[in-house]
C-alpha cells in the first residue's frame, strides 16, 4: 500500500538553557492514514470508526502503515542531539550484577542472576550446603534466541525437585509453550505443550502438573477474543492431546481466568475461577481420595478470596469478603463455606498481603503505600514486627514450611533493590546482597505529600528528585500513574528513573483511586461510573506540582502504561493545556471496543462495557481517548509506544489513537507512534530493547521541553 505524504508540519523546538531558548526547526511529515466509512450504533447513537481497518493485524495494509509510521518516528528521534548520550548513560548504569534471592528445590539451591546487560536473567544453581561460588548455569534464556526476544515465563519444580516445568514467550506474546526438564541431566523430557495462556504450573507430586488455557481462537491469535479458560492436567509420558480438562468445560458457565494450584503438602487442588479481573469463586478437591469431587468454598464472585496455607484439613484463607482491606480466616476443608469461617488475622485500617514460610505467617501491610510486616504463628499469636531496613517496599516473605530462614527484598525510589537474609526464629535480618551500582542514593531525596483531588479526597503522592532542587517551576518532571485493577504503586528503584533524576528530573507517583493502596473501597471508587475520579486525581497531582513550583506546564510530562495509558490518553484529551509531553504506553484507548479483543471482556469490572446500558455507553464515550480527540486543539507533544505482538492490550488501540491525533492536531507539537517489533505488553522485553526505548522516551521528552543538550550538561556549564 502507498501512503500519501501530507504537507510538512514544522516542529519548533525551544532549545538551550533556562536563560533564553533558541529556536530550532524540524519538519515532520506524517503518513496520510486512509479513512473508511465504518459506523456502529449504540442505543440509537451512531459512532464513526474510520480507522477500524487498523485492527486487522494480519493485513498487508496494516503492516505497511506500521512501517511508514516507524520511519517517521525514528527519523524524528534520530535528530535528537543527545539521544545516543542518553542511551550510553542508561547502558552504563544498567551494567551491574543483579542477583535474586536463593531458593531450595530438591538437593539444590537456585537463584537468578543478570551480569549486567544480558537480555534475560539466567537461572543458576549449586548443591545445597556447598560454596555458592561453585554455582553453575542451569537454564539460560539468552540462548533461546540471539536477540533475546524469547523469554522465560513461569517456572515450577516437582515435589522432589527432579523435574522443572517452564514456559517460554516468543516476541512478548501471552501465548506460551511449556517444556519439562530433567533437573539432574538438564535434558528435556516429554511433550512440549503449546498454546498455553494466562497459566500457572503446579505439580501433583512427580506424576504431572496442572495448567490453564483457552481454546485457540479463530482468526488472529494476537487479537481474537478469548473468554473460556479451562484447567488441564498433563500426565508425564503422555502427549498434550491426551491432557484432560479438570475444570471449566461447561459452556453455560464461562470463566475468563482460572488458576489451579496444589497445596505444599500435595493434599489439595485449589481452583480460583473468575469472570473478571476482580472477584473469584473458590473450589477445593481432596487429592488423597481418588475420584473426590470439587467442593465449593465460595460460589459467587463478590470477593477476592484464596487459600493461603493448610495444616492438614485446616485451611487458612485470605479474603476481602466483608473486609475491604482483607483478613485471614480459618476453616475445616470438610465444611469450608463462609458460615464456618473464623477470623484469624482480623481486618485493620491497612491493606493486608500475607505470605507463609518456616511455620510462620507474615502479614505485609501497606501503610500509605509503604510496607509494614508482622510475623504470626499458626495459632494467631503475634511474634514480632519485622524490623525493615527503612521506609519503602519489602517483599518475598515466603519459603517452604521446613526452612529456618528466608530471603526478602527491600527497595524504594532511591534505594536499589537489596536482598536480606531473615532468621525466622530470632527475627534477625542481615544484608545478603547489595548491588554495586554507579548511583549514590545520598544525592537524592524522596518524600510523600498528600494533596486534594477535585471532590475533596486526599491523595498520597511520592516525589523524588536530587537534593537541593531549585523550586523555580522549570524542572523537567514525569508524573507517572496507573489507577486501576486494584494494583498498588509502591516505592521501587528503577534504573531508568535514576537516569532521569540524574538530569535534574523530578519523578512523581500519586496513588490514584482505582488502585489497591487503600483496599477494595479505594479500588471501587475508580471503577465504571466513577472512573473519572482517577483522571481527576491525576490532574490534581499535576496541578499540585505546578502550584508548588516543582515544575510548570512547559516542563511536565505525563506517563503511564496499559490502564495507565488510558489514564494519559484521557488526561491529555481533557486537559491538553496541562502538560508539555504525553507518553501513553500500550494503552487501552478505545473504550467502546476494548472488550472485543483477546481477554478484554475480563476488564469489565473496572470499566463496564458500551453494551451494558445507554448510561454506561455514554459515560465511556465521554472519556474514551479515541473518541475525544477534537479538531482545532493543540495537544501536547505525544509519543505513543506499543508492541506489534501485544496480545493483552492489542496495538490497534494505539494505532487508531495515533491516526486520530495526527489528523486533528493543531499547532507545532509532534504526534508520533513508536511500534516495537517482536515485543508484547512488556513482560520479558530484552534489556537491549528496554534501554533503547527509554533513551527514545526521555530524549523525546527533554527535546520537546526545550533542551538541545542534556540538563545535567547545561547545569555543569552554568556551574563552571
Automatic annotation (TrEMBL):
InterPro entries: AB_hydrolase_fold, Pept_S9_AS, Pept_S9A_N, Peptidase_S9_cat, Peptidase_S9A, Prolyl_oligopep/macrocyclase. Keywords: Hydrolase, Protease, Serine protease. Its EC number is 3.4.21.26. Residues 492-702 form the Peptidase S9 prolyl oligopeptidase catalytic domain. It catalyses: Hydrolysis of Pro-|-Xaa >> Ala-|-Xaa in oligopeptides. Signal peptide: none annotated. Residues 31-432 form the Peptidase S9A N-terminal domain. Belongs to the peptidase S9A family. This is prolyl oligopeptidase. It comes from Aequorivita iocasae.
Amino acid at each position: 500500500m502507498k501512503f500519501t505524504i501530507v504537507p510538512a508540519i514544522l516542529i519548533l523546538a525551544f532549545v538551550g538553557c533556562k536563560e533564553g531558548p533558541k529556536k530550532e526547526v524540524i519538519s515532520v511529515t506524517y503518513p496520510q492514514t486512509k479513512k473508511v466509512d465504518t459506523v456502529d450504533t449504540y442505543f440509537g447513537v451512531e459512532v464513526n470508526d474510520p480507522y477500524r481497518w487498523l485492527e486487522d493485524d494480519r493485513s498487508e495494509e496494516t503492516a505497511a502503515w506500521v512501517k511508514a509510521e516507524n520511519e517517521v518516528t525514528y527519523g524524528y528521534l534520530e535528530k535528537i542531539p543527545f539521544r545516543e548520550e542518553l542511551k550510553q548513560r542508561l547502558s552504563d548504569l544498567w551494567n551491574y550484577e543483579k542477583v535474586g534471592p536463593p531458593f531450595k528445590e530438591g538437593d539444590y539451591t537456585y537463584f537468578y542472576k543478570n551480569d549486567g546487560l544480558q537480555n534475560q536473567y539466567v537461572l543458576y544453581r549449586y548443591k545445597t550446603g556447598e560454596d555458592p561460588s561453585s554455582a553453575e548455569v542451569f537454564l539460560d534464556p539468552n540462548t533461546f534466541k540471539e536477540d533475546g526476544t524469547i523469554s522465560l515465563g513461569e517456572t515450577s519444580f516437582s515435589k522432589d525437585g527432579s523435574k522443572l516445568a517452564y514456559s517460554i514467550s516468543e516476541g512478548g506474546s501471552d501465548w506460551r509453550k511449556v517444556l519439562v526438564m530433567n533437573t539432574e541431566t538438564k535434558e528435556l523430557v516429554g511433550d512440549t505443550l503449546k498454546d498455553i495462556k494466562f497459566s500457572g504450573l503446579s505439580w501433583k507430586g512427580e506424576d504431572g502438573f496442572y495448567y490453564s488455557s483457552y481454546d485457540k481462537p479463530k482468526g488472529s491469535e494476537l487479537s481474537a477474543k478469548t473468554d473460556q479458560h479451562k484447567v488441564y492436567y498433563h500426565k508425564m509420558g503422555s502427549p498434550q492431546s491426551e491432557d484432560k480438562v479438570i475444570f471449566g468445560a461447561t459452556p453455560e458457565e464461562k470463566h475468563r481466568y482460572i488458576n489451579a494450584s496444589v497445596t505444599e503438602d500435595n493434599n489439595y487442588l485449589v481452583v480460583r475461577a473468575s469472570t473478571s479481573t476482580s472477584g473469584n469463586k473458590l473450589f477445593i478437591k481432596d487429592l488423597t481420595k481418588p475420584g473426590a469431587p470439587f467442593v465449593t468454598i465460595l460460589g459467587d464472585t463478590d470477593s477476592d478470596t484464596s487459600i493461603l496455607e493448610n495444616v492438614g484439613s485446616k485451611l487458612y484463607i485470605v479474603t476481602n469478603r466483608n473486609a475491604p482491606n482483607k483478613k485471614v480466616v480459618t476453616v475445616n476443608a470438610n465444611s469450608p463455606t463462609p458460615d464456618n469461617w473464623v477470623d484469624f488475622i482480623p481486618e485493620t485500617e491497612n491493606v493486608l498481603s500475607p505470605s507463609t514460610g518456616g511455620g510462620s505467617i507474615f502479614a505485609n501491610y501497606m501503610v500509605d503505600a509503604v510496607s509494614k510486616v508482622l510475623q504470626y504463628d499458626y495459632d494467631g499469636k503475634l511474634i514480632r514486627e519485622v524490623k525493615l531496613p527503612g521506609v519503602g517496599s519489602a517483599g518475598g516473605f515466603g519459603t517452604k514450611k521446613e526452612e529456618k530462614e528466608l530471603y526478602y527484598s527491600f527497595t524504594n525510589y532511591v534505594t536499589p533493590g537489596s536482598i536480606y537474609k531473615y532468621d525466622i526464629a530470632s527475627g534477625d535480618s542481615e544484608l545478603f546482597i547489595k548491588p554495586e551500582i554507579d548511583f549514590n542514593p545520598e544525592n537524592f531525596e524522596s518524600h510523600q505529600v498528600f494533596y486534594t483531588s477535585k471532590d475533596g479526597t486526599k491523595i498520597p503522592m511520592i516525589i523524588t528528585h536530587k537534593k537541593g532542587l531549585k523550586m523555580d517551576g522549570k524542572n523537567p518532571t514525569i508524573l507517572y500513574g496507573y489507577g486501576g485493577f486494584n494494583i498498588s504503586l509502591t516505592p521501587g528503584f528503577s534504573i531508568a528513573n535514576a537516569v532521569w533524576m540524574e538530569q535534574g528530573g523530578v519523578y512523581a507517583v500519586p496513588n490514584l483511586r482505582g488502585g489497591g493502596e487503600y483496599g477494595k473501597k479505594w479500588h471501587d471508587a475508580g471503577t465504571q461510573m466513577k472512573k473519572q475520579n482517577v483522571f481527576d486525581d491525576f490532574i490534581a497531582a499535576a496541578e499540585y506540582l505546578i502550584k508548588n513550583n516543582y515544575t510548570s506546564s512547559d516542563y511536565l510530562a505525563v506517563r503511564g502504561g496499559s490502564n495507565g495509558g488510558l489514564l494519559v490518553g484521557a488526561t491529555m484529551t481533557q486537559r491538553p493545556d496541562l502538560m508539555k509531553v504525553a507518553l501513553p504506553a500500550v494503552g487501552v484507548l478505545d473504550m467502546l471496543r476494548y472488550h472485543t479483543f483477546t481477554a478484554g471482556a475480563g476488564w469489565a469490572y473496572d470499566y463496564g462495557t458500551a453494551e451494558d446500558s445507554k448510561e454506561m455507553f455514554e459515560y465511556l464515550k465521554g472519556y474514551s481517548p479515541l473518541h475525544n480527540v477534537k479538531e482545532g486543539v493543540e495537544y501536547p507533544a505525544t509519543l505513543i509506544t506499543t508492541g506489534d505482538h501485544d496480545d493483552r492490550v492489542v496495538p490497534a488501540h494505539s494505532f487508531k489513537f495515533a491516526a486520530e491525533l495526527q489528523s486533528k492536531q493543531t499547532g507545532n507539537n509532534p504526534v508520533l507512534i513508536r511500534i516495537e517489533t517482536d515485543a508484547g505488553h512488556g513482560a520479558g522485553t530484552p534489556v537491549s530493547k528496554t534501554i533503547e526505548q527509554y533513551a527514545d522516551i526521555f530524549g523525546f521528552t527533554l527535546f520537546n521541553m526545550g533542551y538541545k543538550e542534556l540538563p545535567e550538561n547545561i547545569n555543569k556549564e552554568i556551574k563552571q
